[in-house]
Amino acid sequence: MPSPQTTPLHSLHAELGAKFVEFAGWEMPVQFSGVMPEHLHTRSHASLFDVSHMGQVIVRPESGDLRDAGLALESLIPANLVDLPEGRQRYGLFTDAQGGVLDDLMVSNHGDRYLVVVNAARAEHDLAWMRAMTGVTVELRTDRALVALQGPGAEAALATLIPVVTDMRFMDSRPLAWEGLDVWVSRSGYTGEDGYEISVPADVAKRFAEALLAVDGVLPAGLGARDSLRLEAGMPLYGHDLDTTVTPAQGGLGWSVPKVRRAGGAREGGFPGADVVLPELQDGPARMRRGLRPEGRAPIREGVRLFADETAAEPIGVVTSGTYGPSVGHPVAMGPLPSGVGDTVFAELRGRRVPVAVVDLPFITPSYKR
Amino acid sequence: MIKYTESHEWLDADGTDVTVGITDFAAEELGEIVFIELPEVGAEVEAGTEVVVIESVKAASEIMAPVSGTVTAVNEELVDNPGLVNEDAKGTWFFRMTVADDAALDSFLDEDAYRARTGA
């Protein structure tokens, strides 16, 4: 087993008392003060997360015309990237020939190039996948760190360093300057809170993070809180809630496939698995990722089997992620269930069947600044 | 007399009556506890079998019966307020049991030996 990679902020995490965990080949902080206090602090103030393990990929058109790079990306991603305005970001999926999800990602239009941010565990795969595109150059930027500043205090905190960020709204994404250095800022995140994701040059990342942490109300948070926050916000985690056995519609992500790429659209199909993905979006999937709220206080975690009733022998689904939701004060989970399932299913927990309400996601109301 | 298990429970023995909780070290490792399932009073338990389920924000864990015996009382307060364990693990008991033979406790760690294990 090769030793895990570390991010430019590793020494800072150690100084701040992080507990580390290996995640997707990286040694990352799982917590500082504790998952629950970090989670609650994010929703009430602001937390700084190191997400430098994620892949930051620059895609440039060889022709110099960004539309060509947009069309190239659209050959892999069922999203509208050609019409994505400069300074905006969009969520998308890589699909395989069977319509399964290879990864989920963010694409930003930075004028002369696209920035694509992919999951750490899929970065190597995605890079090879994107390098099959023609007419573009694809470059993984290992010389940069990525941090997420999340929570209601994020705007004021980041504005102390980069005042112009107050002008940005949800899913804006811009190359900006901090002390004359090239920083890429998007107003987005993985917590359900208002906030930003900021790409900074690796050699100044520690100084940048320290400057944010010096702002009153900003504390460091780890992957543990990131997971419970995204679960409450109803967001899927690749490798758990999404993988190649899940299509966009089954993942509850049909909204990311716009009209222009659907049947009858101007740029209909033209991505791997379109012959599976598009009819399913029209007809509705046989199963779909749903929110799960078990009765009582016991969390239902990944792998717990779900049954239609208290006695059924065959499960109808399996929990793909779940934990206790500190902000909502009850367990939260998600997993795929057949369409037409009732309002209640039963989770098998330590030999007993526990009633679980099938609910719409998210569990919290997001507070994005639109 | 307080004894400790290798799996981070404390055992407060008074003759054949034993009160069981988890150590500060265990509580710290688990993080914020959100759910505790206790055994039934009167349950006959065998050493090494699961008697308590503990769920924290991070993970599920359990307490195995340290010795064989009968559960005589459970701390019902923990069902509604599992966080009490995080506030004071050493002072928060989970259940009491009687053991057939109090010599069964001799093999557990004393405080010095337990501290040496956890590096505390």
Question: What labels describe this entry?
Answer:
heterodimer, A: 370 residues, alpha+beta, Gyrase A, domain 2, Elongation Factor Tu (Ef-tu), domain 3, seven-stranded antiparallel sheet, 20 strands, B: 120 residues, OB fold (Dihydrolipoamide Acetyltransferase, E2P), six-stranded antiparallel sheet, three-stranded antiparallel sheet
Protein model, in words:
The complex is a heterodimer of chains A (370) and B (120). The longest helix of chain A is centred in the N-terminal third of the chain and has 10 residues, at 35-44. In chain A, helix 2 packs across helix 7. Chain A starts with 9 loop residues before the first helix and ends in an 11-residue tail after the last strand. Chain A is 18% helix and 32% strand. By secondary structure, chain A is an alpha+beta fold. Chain A is globular and about 65 Å long. By secondary structure, chain B is of the alpha+beta class. Chain B has one domain (2-118): RNA polymerase II/Efflux pump adaptor protein, barrel-sandwich hybrid domain (OB fold (Dihydrolipoamide Acetyltransferase, E2P)). Chain B has helices at 24-30, 77-80, 84-87, 111-118; strands at 2-4, 9-14, 17-22, 33-37, 44-45, 50-56, 60-64, 69-74, 95-99. Chain B has a six-stranded antiparallel β-sheet with strand order 1-2-3-9-8-5. A three-stranded antiparallel β-sheet of chain B has the order 4-6-7. In chain B, a hairpin with a 2-residue loop joins strand 2 and strand 3. The radius of gyration of chain B is 13 Å and the shape is globular. The model of chain B has no long low-confidence stretch (mean pLDDT 92). Chains A and B meet through helix 2 of A and strand 4 and strand 6 of B.
What's a quick, concise take on this entry?
The complex is a heterodimer of chains A (370) and B (120). With 370 residues, chain A is of the alpha+beta class.
